[in-house]
Design a protein that fits this description.
With 198 residues, the chain is α+β, with helices and mostly antiparallel strands. The chain contains eight helices and six strands.
């Protein structure tokens, strides 16, 4: 299946935003960016570097600018994807009824392409060592299968689980989170996998 067919399928799967995604896609297709699919979603690259992507969710759809921190954003359309965590990624979020200004979107895309050509890029910093909460360590001792499946997860997914459990202030909440996470870990799923293709 070609990337174009995969994007068609993605739009069909998110039919509640079909018209809007199709319009945004047409703006991207009129640029020199290459349409691909990364992590199951439409992505637009220049010389192999991610420039932007489209995302569809239950209550909104969005354009992601992977090095959006460098965009001037004169119209104040962009938000930090995850305040405090995300360094470069910026999101342009749309809800039902929002006007899609193709000309303005094209200006942002062309600026993102120019930034990619200029090599503007925030390089990911090395992650700090993964800290496993003691409650999770104890669960690994009691359940060897849990430890085995956890170790098969990507470092990012391991970090998500560890931080999710450790961030609860009360021990009862930590225990509850561990109980809810255990089946997901045993299935080899990440904590947020169910949201990634919504």
């Amino acid at each position: 299946m070609t990337d174009s067919e995969k994007v068609n399928n993605y739009i069909q799967k998110n039919s509640h935003w079909k018209e809007e995604l199709t319009l945004l896609r047409s703006v991207f297709q009129k640029t020199e960016l290459k349409e691909e699919v990364k992590w199951g979603i439409p992505a637009y690259t220049f010389n192999g570097n991610l420039v932007a992507g489209l995302g569809a969710f239950k209550n909104h759809f969005a354009i992601w600018f992977h090095q959006g921190v460098f965009l001037k954003d004169t119209q104040k359309q962009l938000v930090n994807a995850q305040e405090g965590k995300t360094k470069a990624l910026r999101q342009w979020k749309f809800s039902a009824g929002d006007t899609i200004n193709s000309k303005l979107i094209r200006i942002y895309i062309l600026e993102a392409i120019a930034n990619a050509k200029a090599g503007k890029k925030i390089k990911p910093q090395a992650k700090a060592e993964l800290l496993i909460p003691s409650l999770l360590k104890e669960a690994f001792i009691k359940n060897k299968q849990l430890a085995k499946h956890f170790n098969k997860l990507t470092p990012g997914k391991q970090r998500e689980y560890a931080e999710h459990i450790a961030s609860a202030k009360r021990e009862a909440t930590q225990i509850s989170r561990l109980e809810k996470c255990t089946p997901l870990i045993l299935e080899g799923k990440g904590l947020y996998d169910k949201y990634k293709n919504c």
